Amino acid sequence: MKRIAVLTSGGDCSGMNAAVRAIVRAGLAANIEVIGIQKGFQGLIDRHYELLSTKSVSNVLQRGGTFLQSARCKEMREPSGQRLAAENLIGMGVEGLIVLGGDGSLTGALALAQQGTAVIGIPASIDNDIPFTDMALGVDTALNNIVRAVDNIKDTASSHDRAFFVETMGRNCGYLAVVSAIACGAEYSLIPEEPYDLDDICQELRRRYQQGRSNSIIMVAEGAGNAQQIAEEIKDRIGFETRTIVLGHYQRGGSPTVFDRLLAARFGQAAVENLLAGEKGKMLGLKNSKMQLTPLADVINSGIRPIDELLPRLINDLMI
Ligand code: F6P
What we know:
By secondary structure, the protein is an alpha/beta fold. It has helices at 16-29, 40-46, 79-91, 103-114, 139-159, 175-184, 198-210, 227-234, 258-276, 296-300, 310-318; strands spanning 3-8, 33-37, 49-52, 96-101, 119-123, 162-168, 188-190, 215-221, 241-246, 282-287, 290-295.
């Protein structure tokens, strides 16, 4: 193998730059060229790419986002777009491709694998909804962003006897809401994976108010409902005044945590090593602290990564 390519696709996340850096440096160490494709699969279709040197990736490790930029690409959902992308790779002299992204991006990677491209996927999405990996890249940084925000919110909430409804991202997955609720000592996390009863929640929040608690925090995963509407619906029934905050894209940016930097380095290097060893059509994952490969088809056909059922119970047990 003489030349490989890397692209970052879908929603950006912290750690993508660190992973691209690891891929470039591991590639150069093995005497292969690495080209960076701009704006994900769109750049592959439009042939926007550059040869990356060790200098192109210096000073990027600590930066959030992706210097290669990212995009969600409609053409890549069509067989004609997938064919063009695979042909362009051949035209660029690329013998192996590394795709960083979430489920949509890994679906694109699978489509290319089916066109004959040697491709390795790296799970990179704050949602942590990708199966066959304990953690995706960017999740830990997003959680730390959420925790920092909620710690600040608690200061002001407790100064005014308020209940805050904090909406987190995650699409149809409640992982960010559940784990941040445990880490912040929140009273509830409303997630799409589990039904919730607003009457029970109101009763419990009122009991806490009457006990003289100074604040309540309710994490709401975006897939479980609209935090503003939920807060509006129950505001007169809980004693506390309510306020809502939608954390939005604040969660996705910022310098990656040590966990994400380490994961990026391991994913990046393992992706290059595995491509050189002839592996293809697979996604890397972190399983029990080890790198593991899973066929992309299994990843895509397995649905959303389930949340450990003990985690929601932990919030409940600790909120008394
Ligand atoms: O998949 C990552 C994610 O941040 C989701 O949590 C969120 O629903 C979505 O992307 C937001 O997408 P966009 O950046 O296109 O608004």
